[in-house]
Amino acid sequence: MTYDDIDIGYDVPAAIGDTIADIQTPALIIDLDAFERNVARMKDHAGTMGVRLRPHAKTHKSADVALYQIANGGAVGICCQKVSEAEALVRGGVTDVLVANEVADPKKIDRLARLARSARVSVCVDDPAVVATLSEAAALHGVTLDVLVEIDCGARRCGVLPGEPAVELAKTVAAAPSLAFAGIQAYHGSAQHIYDPVERRAAIDKAIDMARETAGLLRDAGLEPKIITGAGTGTHDLEGASGVYNEIQPGSYIFMDEDYSRVRSTEGNGTIGGFEHALFVLTSIMSKPASGRAICDAGLKAHSIDSGLPTVFERPALKFASASDEHGKIEDPQDTLKLNDRLRLVPGHCDPTCNLYDWYVCVRNGRVEALWPVTARGKLY
């Protein structure tokens, strides 16, 4: 996608062919080589384990990235969290979307059913009160919605209790007009960031047991769970190799952030999955007010710090020490930095960082190769 007709610096931070030095900062950049290797690695992992791959678009919120994952990364479709995200992705050309979350508001449910006229749309439920509203909206718009029963498998977030409560909810779904019971979602979100591989495996083993038990009871009741889905970047290898799950939902693997770099592989050697940092906040030094200190232009508004401060990529002598709204303080003990130097920051948490930007500036061999809109930026409803 080329935007040569748009004034650079007004609508987009760079032009195709620009060098790194030309990019207006702060900017969200993708190292295309690392990104493509990450996509290929997860495709290989899923293929080896024999499970479907449905990546989570809540990470990138980009139709361009989603379409690349489908065309090149083995993805059967895409996950998202909000109806507005699903709408934006479908407008961008995605044709198979799972809203891997609960949708309870009748207006949102109506939008979801209307969207199913343009794409295959699935959604999760954990409450029988929602089933009737989903059914009515689907019938009104002349569609059939695939519905997955979400179970709480340890995160204590959304989800009905596993076992018989999940079976009863599945029966309600299966009996509702214009709905199709598709299976179960068993996603343990908080386990993704358990750094210790032994503790992480223990948490996921419990989740796998809950999913296995629930699936068995569903089959006993004559309700085949065609889809058993869950897992994220941090645990994809565990659920994927379990023999229980047949679909996985990793998201952050394409970019990887500083927090995920602390999640050790199941074998305890290296980062989970061998994935690389591919997403960076490109920042410039805007002030060098004192020896040992530099100030960059990426502050709190440029990256999310809920999972910790960013790190300076491949510059271990530099430390991102603190942030205010528009400023980042860099400790530079050797006084190596000067005005307008560029640094790549690895964000602490990639998902909310991506939601702060309008564009991905995609770079290869030191030059801008593509500009991808953050299609679903701000789509929170």
From TrEMBL:
Q: Which domain of life is it from?
A: Bacteria
Q: Which InterPro entries does this one have?
A: Ala_racemase_N, D-amino_acid_metab_enzyme, D-ser_dehydrat-like_dom, D-ser_dehydrat-like_sf, PLP-binding_barrel
What Gene3D superfamilies does the database record attribute to this sequence? Alanine racemase, D-serine dehydratase-like domain
Query: Which Pfam families has this protein been placed in?
Result: Ala_racemase_N, D-ser_dehydrat
Give residue ranges for domain D-serine dehydratase-like.
278-364
Give a yes or no for keyword Protease in this entry: no
Set out the biological process GO terms recorded for this chain's protein. D-serine catabolic process
Q: What is this protein called?
A: Metal-activated pyridoxal enzyme
- What keywords is this UniProt entry annotated with? Lyase, Pyridoxal phosphate
